[in-house]
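Example for tutorial group B:
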């Protein structure tokens, strides 16, 4: 690995990758709302390559004596989210 990447914290790397994933997903949704009925660009950007879900549609319930809560999340990975992760990691390489 290059020396620049070895000096960085792994937690910062993961945070930057998650931020890139979220920004890329939103950009994909924005691009997917191009006016028009059905076109190739819209289908490409709105297609979810890898839907990951934990606790959905039935969230994981934790019931303690004084408190109860539910845990669940979904991740949709599309073309733009992958581009967002790549761009954010490329920018992270030059971040000091």
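The residue assignment follows.
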């Amino acid at each position: 690995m290059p020396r620049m990447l070895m000096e960085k914290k792994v937690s910062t790397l993961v945070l930057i990758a998650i931020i890139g994933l979220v920004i890329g997903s939103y950009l994909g949704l924005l691009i997917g709302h191009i006016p028009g009925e059905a076109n190739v660009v819209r289908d490409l950007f709105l297609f979810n390559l890898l839907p990951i879900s934990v606790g959905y549609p039935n969230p994981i319930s934790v019931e303690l004596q004084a408190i109860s809560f539910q845990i669940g999340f979904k991740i949709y990975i599309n073309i733009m989210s992958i581009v967002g992760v790549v761009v954010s990691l490329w920018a992270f390489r030059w971040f000091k």
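The first helix runs from residue 3 to 6. Compare this with the pattern of hydrophobic and polar residues in the output above.
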